Amino acid sequence: MRLRKFRVKAYRCIHDSGEIKVEDLAAFVGRNESGKTTILEALTLLNKEQKVSELDLCDEMAEELKSEIKLAEGEFELNEKETGLVREKFPNLQDIKKIKIYRTNKNPRVQYDFGEIKISGEASKRLNSWENFVERIQDFVNSMPNPIMIRMDVKFLESPAPRTRDVFMNMMSEFNNSVYLLASEDARVISDWKKIHQDLDYIFDNMLVGTNERSALENFIEDKIHPRFVYFSDYKKILGNIDLEEFLREKKGIRPRGLEYVEEFDKAETVINLFYLAELDVEKLEEAQNSPSRLIKLLHTASRKLSDRLNPAWKGDPIHVELRWNPGNILSVVISDVHKDGTVTNTGLLNRRAEGFKWTFSFIVNFAAETQKAELKETILLLDEPARNLHPAQQRGISDLLKGLAGSNQVLYSTHSPFMIFDYTPGNLLVVELDKRKHLSHIYYDYWNADDQTLIPILYGLSRGLTESIVDRQIGFNSRPVIIVETMSDSMYLNAFDKFLKDPNLSMNPLNIVPAYSKNSVMSLAIFYRNHGYDTFVLLDNTDESVQIATHLETNQFKKVQMIFFELGGQTKQFLEDLIMDEDYLYAVNQTYEVKLRKEGYKALTKETVLSKGKKSIIDNLNEIWKENHHLGWEKFDREEICRYICEKIAINETDFLTDKTKDQFRSLYRLIAERIRQNQNLGSQATLSYSR
Hints:
Elements: E1 2-11, E2 14-16, E3 20-21, E4 25-29, H1 36-43, E5 70-77, H2 80-89, E6 98-104, E7 111-113, H3 130-142, H4 146-149, H5 165-183, H6 187-197, H7 200-205, H8 213-224, E8 228-232, E9 241-243, H9 244-251, H10 259-262, H11 267-278, H12 282-287, H13 292-310, E10 319-326, E11 330-338, E12 344-349, H14 355-373, E13 379-384, H15 392-405, E14 410-415, E15 429-435, E16 440-444, H16 456-463, H17 467-471, H18 473-477, E17 482-485, H19 488-501, E18 513-515, H20 522-531, E19 536-540, H21 544-555, E20 563-565, E21 567-568, E22 571-572, H22 582-592, H23 594-599, H24 607-611, H25 618-628, H26 639-651, H27 660-692
Parallel strand pairs: 4-14, 4-15, 8-13, 13-14, 17-18, 17-19, 19-20
Antiparallel strand pairs: 1-2, 1-3, 1-5, 5-6, 6-7, 9-11, 10-11, 11-12, 15-16, 21-22
Helix pairs in contact: 5-6, 9-11, 11-13, 11-14, 19-26, 19-27, 20-21, 22-26
């Protein structure tokens, strides 16, 4: 199941969060004590085993809490497999694709809401449930002659429904033996029992728990497919030397007392996680002490496995982790830096490294181990500040780890860091704000409407060094029109050709181009500029993703005149590069990739070779050629590298390869931009006149 919407009420500082949409990988951003942790912890109330503490209920809502309130409510989307499991057990029901799960302040159990799907609440004898099976067995026993009946042991009927087939079949095997032992001479009893016994396999495989369809469905969902929330908040430090005797005592719960221990991290837990990733059994380690060759082999294998599991989330030069055995049953964690040229340096104990390094290493070990041990799949992970204390490069490593987990799980996490925000799509990024007067938390998925100070990490992620100019409205009101483009290449081309053409009738002295950080940030960046007083336009590719961006902008009060798609002579062009004549663009490609092309037998890529791929754009055609040669090490076609070549040649005035046709096609684009700016100004003037009247 995936959480798609949630609502929190009367929980700590949150009176009512309102309905919040979330996607598979969502970040909560907000200032300290804004309620981010509270939101994550509130969602754990939807775990079926979670209990509600009176201390967590909002003191300011004491009156409302006298009635039953949904403290946490989530709307979940079932995948095809989950829908199929329910369909198999309840074939008469309409397919269930969404479920609301909620917990109240009055009921200790989670509850389910199936919307408009009709589900019977009437008791049904036809339902293949444990309760009905127990009643059937009881009726069978009651039908026996009294001398036999009083000797039958039916205490197992008072037990809860068996969890496994083995438990059920063992239970029924004992009962079967009793029937044949006590009633072998009674043909009627044996005949009645055979009718029941022959159906045992079918009965267990399809057994439900509940006396009516609704209770059976709720119990089935709770037992088989109820979502699991796993909350991570405590990231413990791993030390460089491990005293195995002390570790074994702690593992058995034998711990020293005193304040010193209370303030230390739980060393046993961190060592267990380290050994888990290394697939190292401490008992086998002790057995190998008297065999040096066996011990060396065991530690070498464990060290390699540990390094392999840690490096995917480790940014910068890789590390090698070595576990060394020392006298006195001490196991040392030794770290080395592995450089790109294969050299190994800086070998030493983990506890001699910088605090930031130790924290990073410990976090990755603990988090990777806990998630792998739990065999996380279709789980909702809740992480409170997973990148605290980390360098930005390592934060990107953690973000890669989260992206990987989001493939088979849902990940919701809180952060203050712009480097931990990598998706600006509404629902993947949420803002949490605290109303200081009422001491209430508010959550926005349309995060651009939040307070400017709360938005600082997002703004830095969207436009980094431009943040200060964006939030100053006076700059916006007094600035030239802003043209948001989707890529850095678009910005470079527009500025370079504007300078190159030197046409006073077209130049905007110069164009005020703002490149978006990525396509999914175009909409947000445009809205921020517009909201802070800038006359804002968006220049878009003719791709499905760009059309979707334009649709979202329209819903946020952008006029169509403000959205400019690449076109030429009334025909759409997919990319800005399509305004450059094919021969001109291929000249730059052949010059940039000259060595690679010659190596693979190409003197130069010709227009005919490229167009033969049959794609809409020269970029798509070149991507296809590079893909076909991927096995030769061509990797990916780098359009930004070609852009840099062309713009560099323009800057040093070496532009003989650029034809007049290419120049004319860029002039057409600038005319289109200028015309749209004039149209928008006219619309604004008309609106002002209408208002003044």
